[in-house]
Amino acid sequence: KGLPNSPNSLATVYWNKDTKETFISVNSLPIPQPGLQYQLWAIVDGKPVSVGMYNDSDGKMQEMKVIKSAQAFAITLEKEGGSETPTMEEMYVMGAV
User: Fold this and answer.
1) pTM value?
2) 3-state secondary structure string across the chain
3) b/e for 27-44, b at 16 or more Cβ within 10 A?
């Protein structure tokens, strides 16, 4: 679900607990400004782990990195290419597993 800075944002993360595969389907996110890109994070034991960058070039479901465990997933807006840590002020979506 969307957070206060973007309440209408919505994304669906599909995480297979058996194979550990992760996919994302973005329902609604603001179009990022040039040089910025959305990054998916898994929250693992209270710490963010990058699951990869979202590329909305085709608008279809996108396969992300394999993630062994997660209590939640979140999406932040980062500089193109990603960040090692999430920019908390730019978090748009978060949802528990």
Assistant:
1) 0.94
2) CECCCCCCCEEEEEECCCCCCEEEEEEECCCCCCCEEEEEEEEECCEEEEEEEECCCCCCCEECCCCCCCCEEEEEEEECCCCCCCCHHHEEEEEEC
3) eebeebeeeebbbbbbbe
The single residue listed with the structure tokens 């978090």 is 91
Per-residue pLDDT reduced to its tens digit, 13-67: 999 999 999 999 999 999 999 999 999 999 999 999 999 999 875 668 999 999 9
Q: Which backbone phi and psi does 41 adopt, to 5 degrees? A: -125, 140
